[in-house]
Design a protein that fits this description.
The complex is a heterodimer of chains A (252) and B (437).
Chain A (H helix, E strand, L loop, with lengths): L1 E10 L2 E11 L4 E5 L6 H9 L4 E10 L2 E2 L5 H7 L1 E4 L6 E5 H15 L7 H14 L10 E2 L5 H15 L3 E5 L7 H14 L5 E5 L3 H7 L3 E6 L2 E6 L1 H10 L13
Parallel strand pairs in A: 3-10, 3-11, 6-9, 9-10
Antiparallel strand pairs in A: 1-2, 1-4, 4-5, 7-8, 11-12
Chain B lengths: L2 H15 L7 H17 L15 H4 L27 E6 L2 E8 L8 E4 H7 L1 H4 L13 H9 L4 E5 L9 E7 L6 E11 L4 E10 L5 E11 L4 E9 L5 E10 L4 E8 L4 E10 L5 E10 L4 E10 L5 E10 L4 E10 L7 E10 L5 E10 L5 E9 L3 H8 L5 H17 L5 H16 L4
Parallel strand pairs in B: 1-5, 4-6, 5-7, 6-8, 7-9, 8-10, 9-11, 10-12, 11-13, 12-14, 13-15, 14-16, 15-17, 16-18, 17-19
Antiparallel strand pairs in B: 1-2, 3-4
Helix pairs in contact in B: 1-2, 2-6, 7-8, 8-9
The chains are: A alpha/beta (252), B alpha/beta (437).
Bound molecules: adenosine-5'-triphosphate (ATP) and magnesium ion.
C-alpha cells in the first residue's frame, strides 16, 4: 500500500534522511524506533506533505500513486493521515467547526452526502467516547490550552473520524499517562483492519505491548539500520541503540 | 496660513454670522476659540511625531464643503442591511439627524437622547462641564476644526441607576449629493452612577463617493457606571475618516471600547481613555481589515491617573494588497496610579508582500508598584497551522479562511451581544470572501 523507495530528504540543505526503504502493506502495523534526531518526524512529515522538507531523491508510492506529487490535502483525501508529534495550537478556530469541515471534505471526496450539524454532533460524540474525550472540548479552539495528553487524544480522535487507510502516528504515546496509553492503544486496535496500514513512531515498548506490531524498524542517522519482529523492541528497551552498528543501506 | 486653512476660516465666519448666532453665547465662544486654534495649528504634517506615518495630502489639497442642504433620498429599505436586531436605531444621513427613520420607542422615559445640535442649545448647562473638556481642541487640529463646525450627532445622558438593556445603534450614513463634502459629527455620552449602556457607532458609506467624516465623541462615565462602546467603520472606499473618541472614567467604572475598521481610503482613529477614578477598568479591542491601498492609522492612549486601575488592550489587523496600517498604543501610568494593571497586545497579519504595518507600543510609567505588559507581532499566516489544517483534507483556501476567521474571531468573541456579533460576523465574512489570499 505504501512504498518508500530510496528516500533522501534534506532540510535547509542538510541531509536528514539518507535512503529509506520501507513497504507497509494493507493490514500491517510497522513500528519505527530510534534515537532523538534520527529523522523519524522528518519521515512522517514528508509522507504527509510538509514542503519545508526537500526530497532530493527517491519516491513514495501510495496505492500506485506518486504521493510526492500531491498536495497535503490531496494526500489526506486519498487516505493518508499523520498524527503530529507536536499538534499545532490554533487559537480562535473552533474544534467542532474544524472537524466538521474536515469530515465533510472527506465525505465529499468519497461521493458521500455531507453531514449536517446535528448528524455531525452525534457522529463526533460517539468517536469522542472511544478516546474518552469530554464533550466540553467541542466548544474549544483547536488544541488551545490542551494539555500534552489531551492534544494527543485529539490527534487520535481525528484519525478515528477521518478513517484513513494509512496512518502515520508520530509519538502519539509520548506524554500520555499510563491509562491514556491503554485508551489510545485500544482505540487504535479497534480501528485496525486488513484494509488499513500503520506506521507507529515511538520511543516506548509500553504501547507496542498493547498494539502488537508486525515489524519493528530502527531509524538511526537517517537510515533504517535494523528491522525485526516485535521482539526487537524488547531488546532495544533493554540494551538501547548503541549496540547496533550502522549497516549499509539495503538495496531497494 | 495655508490657503486651505484660510478657506475653512472664511467658511466659518460666514456661518458664525448666521447659523450659529441663535446658540448660547458660551457655545459660540467655544466655536470661535476652536476656530482660532485651528488656524494657528493648521493641518498636521509628517514632521509631527504623532503624524509621521500618515500622509494627509488627500485632505489638505482639497476643500471639503459643508453639506449642501440638499438631502439624498433614502427609504427604510436602504437601511435594512444595517439593522441590528433588538437595538434602538438613530439615523444620521449626510450629517443630518433623520427622526423618521429612527426608533427611540420608550427610551425617552428613562434617558435623555437627542440630536447633538439641539442639545447644544437645550441642554447647554448639562453639556458645559464636558464639552471641549474631554476632547481637547487646543492641541488637536481635527478636534479644533470639529469643535468650530460641530453640528448634528447624538447626545445621550443616562441618569443615575439606570440599566439600559437594548443597545443604541447610531447609524451614520453617508451618500452626499456633492463630492468632497465634510461631516463634522459630534457625539456626547454621559452615563450616571451605577448606570449601564451599550452604544454602537456605525459609519456607513452607501456608494463610492468621496467625502470626509470628522467625528468627535466625548464620553464620561460616573462612579460604578458601565459603557460598552462599539465603533464600526464601514465608510465608502474613497472616504476619509478622522475620528477622536475620548472617555473619562470615574472610580469603579468600566468601559469597553471595541473598534471594527473595514472602510475608507484613509482613517485616523484617536482613541483615548483616562482612568480618572480609583479602580476603573477599561478594555480596548480593535480589528482592522484593510486591502488595496487603504491607510488605517490607530492611535490609542490608556491613561492611568488613579490607583488600582486595570486596562487590557488587544488590537489586531489583517492587511493585504498595498494596505498600510499603523498601531500606536500608548500606556501612561501616572505617579499616583499605584497597583495599576495594564496589558496591551497588537497582532498583525500581512497577506501580501506590499502590505505594511508600523506597530509602536509606548509605555510611560511613573509609578513603581504596577504591572504592565505589552507585546506586538506582525507576520504571515502561520505555515505550520496551515499545514495542520491541510493535512486533514482542507483545501488551501478553506484552511486560510479558517485561520483568518480564527484570528478575527478573537476580537468578535469579546462582544457579548449576539445580534451585534452576528452583524460583525457578516461584515467579516464579506470582507474575507472579497480578498485574494
Ligand atoms: N526545520 C528544521 N531546520 C533545521 N533542522 C531540522 C529541522 N527539522 C528537523 N531538523 C533536524 O533534522 C534532524 C531530524 O529531526 P527529526 O525531528 O526528524 O528527529 P526525530 O527522529 O523525530 O527526533 P525525536 O525523537 O527527538 O522526535 C534533527 O537533527 C533536527 O535538528
Ligand atoms: Mg520526532
Amino acid at each position: 500500500m505504501l512504498e518508500i523507495k530510496n528516500l533522501h530528504v534534506s532540510v535547509e540543505g542538510k541531509p536528514i534522511l539518507k535512503g529509506i526503504n520501507l513497504t507497509v502493506n494493507a493490514g500491517e502495523l510497522h513500528a519505527i524506533m530510534g534515537p532523538n534526531g534520527s529523522g523519524k518526524t522528518t519521515l512522517a512529515q514528508v509522507i504527509a506533505g510538509r514542503d519545508m522538507y526537500e526530497v532530493t531523491d527517491g519516491e513514495i508510492i501510495f496505492d500506485g500513486k506518486n504521493l510526492l506529487k500531491m498536495t497535503p490535502e490531496a494526500r489526506a483525501l486519498e487516505g493518508v493521515f499523520m498524527s503530529f508529534q507536536y499538534p499545532v495550537v490554533i487559537p480562535g478556530v473552533n474544534i467542532t467547526y474544524f472537524l466538521k469541515t474536515a469530515v465533510n471534505a472527506m465525505r465529499k471526496h468519497k461521493g458521500l452526502e455531507e453531514l449536517d450539524a446535528i448528524d455531525f454532533l452525534t457522529f463526533i460524540k460517539e468517536k469522542m467516547r472511544l478516546v474518552r474525550m469530554d464533550e466540553s472540548y467541542l466548544s474549544r479552539s483547536v488544541n488551545d490550552g490542551f494539555s500534552g495528553g489531551e492534544k494527543k487524544r485529539n490527534e487520535i480522535l481525528q484519525m478515528l473520524v477521518l478513517e484513513p487507510r494509512m496512518s502515520v502516528l508520530d509519538e502519539t504515546d509520548s506524554g500520555l499517562d499510563i491509562d491514556a496509553v491503554r485508551i489510545v492503544a485500544n482505540g487504535l486496535n479497534n480501528f485496525r483492519s486488513k484494509e488499513r496500514g500503520f506506521l507507529v513512531i515511538t520511543h516506548y515498548q509500553r504501547i507496542l505491548g498493547y498494539i502488537d506490531p508486525d515489524y519493528v524498524h530502527v531509524l538511526k542517522n537517517g537510515r533504517i539500520i535494523k528491522s525485526g519482529g516485535k521482539n526487537l523492541a524488547l531488546e532495544l528497551e533493554e540494551k538501547g541503540y548503541s549496540w547496533l552498528v550502522e549497516e549499509q543501506p539495503i538495496e531497494a | 496660513m495655508l490657503k486651505i486653512v484660510k478657506q475653512y476660516a472664511d467658511e466659518f465666519r460666514n456661518l458664525d454670522n448666521g447659523h450659529f448666532s441663535t446658540e448660547p453665547v458660551a457655545i459660540q465662544n467655544i466655536r470661535i476659540s476652536a476656530m482660532e486654534r485651528f488656524t494657528e495649528l493648521g493641518f498636521p504634517n509628517n514632521k509631527l511625531e504623532e503624524w509621521k506615518n500618515t500622509n494627509l495630502d488627500g485632505l489638505t489639497k482639497t476643500l471639503f464643503k459643508l453639506p449642501s442642504g440638499k438631502q439624498t433620498q433614502i427609504t427604510p429599505e436602504t437601511i435594512v442591511p444595517f439593522s441590528i436586531e433588538g437595538t434602538h436605531r438613530l439615523v444620521i444621513l449626510n450629517g443630518k439627524y433623520l427622526p423618521e427613520l429612527s426608533n427611540l420607542d420608550n427610551l425617552l422615559t428613562t434617558i435623555e437622547i437627542k440630536n447633538f445640535s439641539e442639545a447644544l442649545t437645550d441642554d447647554s448647562s448639562l453639556l458645559a462641564p464636558y464639552l471641549g473638556k474631554i476632547a481637547d481642541y487646543t492641541n488637536h487640529p481635527f478636534v479644533a476644526l470639529n469643535t468650530a463646525f460641530m453640528d448634528d450627532g447624538i447626545f445621550i445622558h443616562v441618569p443615575d441607576n439606570q440599566i439600559i438593556e437594548n443597545p443604541i445603534h447610531l447609524l451614520y450614513i453617508s451618500s452626499p449629493t456633492d463630492e468632497n463634502t465634510v461631516f463634522h459629527l459630534r457625539n456626547m455620552i454621559i452615563v450616571g452612577v451605577n448606570s449601564e449602556i451599550t452604544i454602537i457607532e456605525d459609519y456607513v458609506g452607501l456608494d463610492n463617493k468621496k467625502y470626509f467624516t470628522n467625528v468627535v465623541t466625548e464620553m464620561a462615565v460616573k462612579e460604578n457606571g458601565t459603557i460598552h462602546h462599539i465603533k464600526i467603520q464601514q465608510e465608502s472606499a474613497r472616504a476619509h475618516h478622522i475620528s477622536t473618541l475620548q472617555v473619562h472614567l470615574d472610580s469603579a467604572s468600566s468601559v469597553s471600547l471595541d473598534s471594527f475598521i473595514v472602510g475608507s481610503s484613509m482613517t485616523r482613529n484617536d482613541i483615548s481613555a483616562i482612568l480618572n477614578g480609583e479602580g476603573a477598568d477599561c478594555k480596548m479591542n480593535g480589528l482592522v481589515l484593510a486591502k488595496d491601498s487603504q491607510h488605517i492609522d490607530n492611535h490609542t492612549i490608556l491613561d492611568h491617573a488613579m490607583p488600582h486601575g486595570t486596562s487590557s488592550e488587544l488590537f489586531k489587523g489583517i492587511y493585504t494588497g498595498k494596505a498600510h496600517g499603523i498601531f500606536n498604543g500608548r500606556i501612561i501610568v501616572r505617579k499616583n496610579a499605584q497597583k495599576t494593571d495594564a496589558r496591551q497586545t497588537n497582532k498583525n497579519l500581512l497577506l501580501s508582500d506590499s502590505a505594511l504595518v508600523n506597530s509602536n507600543p509606548q509605555l510611560e510609567i511613573y509609578a513603581d508598584d504596577v504591572k504592565c505588559t505589552h507585546g506586538s507581532t506582525t507576520g504571515q499566516l502561520e505555515e505550520e497551522a496551515l499545514f495542520y489544517l491541510r493535512s486533514r483534507g482542507l483545501d488551501i483556501r478553506t484552511a486560510q479562511a479558517l485561520l483568518l476567521h480564527g484570528f478575527a474571531d478573537q476580537i468578535l468573541n469579546k462582544i457579548s451581544n449576539l445580534a451585534i456579533k452576528a452583524y460583525l460576523q457578516s461584515i467579516l465574512s464579506n470582507w474575507l470572501s472579497g480578498i485574494k489570499t
